[in-house]
UniProtKB/TrEMBL annotation:
One of its GO terms (molecular function) is diaminopimelate epimerase activity. Keywords: Amino-acid biosynthesis, Cytoplasm, Isomerase, Lysine biosynthesis. Homodimer. Catalyzes the stereoinversion of LL-2,6-diaminopimelate (L,L-DAP) to meso-diaminopimelate (meso-DAP), a precursor of L-lysine and an essential component of the bacterial peptidoglycan. This is Diaminopimelate epimerase. It comes from Desulfofundulus thermobenzoicus. NCBIfam families: DapF.
Length: 284
């Protein structure tokens, strides 16, 4: 089984192209993701990404988190998929339609000399109604709403970018106990499908600093949908304008909440290496 190790600002993935090879029959996908994503006993990654044929787009992208759960969408992964398809998959075009669990997304490739320098993705409009997050409680938006965890009260803004996000504003993200607070917020009973968590420090009208606890992966160096959710939360709470540079531990994403209501994410994608998974690890 041939794979490519890729990352978007340090949010890394094992990418497997299933157009010219088959996933081994009977191989348990969640178990394989847990094994292959293990940092010591596997290749090591935040998730396993599969590229498959699609009936409604150019390709279908599936994302299996390091814990074996499946994510609806991932902004960093879709940039990596777009770069791979342009440079290795024979899709030499400016736009590529990608089917995801959150609908069809359209990355636009910014190229130079035949290489992808950055990818701009139309991430669609945010979903703000509580039932769309999904989050338990009365109808309406969740903006600066109190949430109690282990006796502490946090004020959260909830956003769905096809996957759930819980955004909290803090004075200094470096002082946040990410490993202590992240798991409890991710699995809070108010979020029936769990949630991603973003801790946000506002720097100015156009810049924020963010640390992320990703659902199913834990702390990651970047999160594309999280950067989009952060921008929406910043605007709803009157912290920034609608164009924001989101500084993450792995680098910076530029997010625009445009007049058409859609969010546009621009950032890099990188290929690190390629290789083959031994047959004994894939039951082939």
């Amino acid at each position: 089984m041939r794979f490519y190790k890729v990352h978007g600002l340090g949010n890394d993935f094992i990418l497997v192209d299933l157009f010219n090879q088959e996933w081994p029959p009977g191989e348990d996908l969640p178990a394989a993701a847990r094994r292959l994503c293990h940092r010591q006993f596997g290749i090591g990654a935040d998730g396993l990404v599969l590229i498959q044929p699609s009936r409604q787009a150019d390709v279908h992208m599936r994302i299996i988190n390091a814990d074996g759960s499946e994510a609806e969408m991932c902004g960093n992964a879709i940039r990596c998929v777009a770069k791979y398809l342009y440079e290795r998959g024979g899709m030499h075009r400016e736009e590529i339609r990608v089917e995801t669990g959150a609908g069809v997304m359209i990355p636009r490739l910014l190229t130079e000399g035949g290489k992808v320098k950055a990818v701009r993705v139309d991430m669609g409009p945010p979903r703000l109604e509580r039932r769309e997050i999904p989050m338990i409680g009365p109808p309406g938006k969740v903006v600066n709403e109190p949430l109690v965890l282990d006796g502490q009260t946090f004020y959260i803004t909830a956003v769905s970018m096809g996957n759930p996000h819980c955004v909290l504003f803090v004075p200094d993200v470096e002082q946040v106990d990410l490993g202590g607070l992240g798991p409890g917020l991710e699995k809070h009973p108010f979020f029936p499908r769990k949630t991603n968590v973003e801790f946000v420090q506002v720097l100015n009208d156009g810049e924020v600093k963010v640390r992320v606890w990703e659902r199913g992966a834990g702390p990651t160096l970047a999160c594309g949908t999280g950067a989009c959710a952060t921008t929406v939360a910043c605007v709803l709470n009157n912290h920034t304008g609608r164009s924001v540079h989101v500084h993450l531990p792995g680098g910076t994403l530029f997010i625009e909440w445009a007049a058409d209501g859609h969010l546009y994410m621009t950032g890099p994608a990188e290929e690190v290496f390629c290789g083959e998974i031994p047959c004994e690890q894939t039951t082939c």
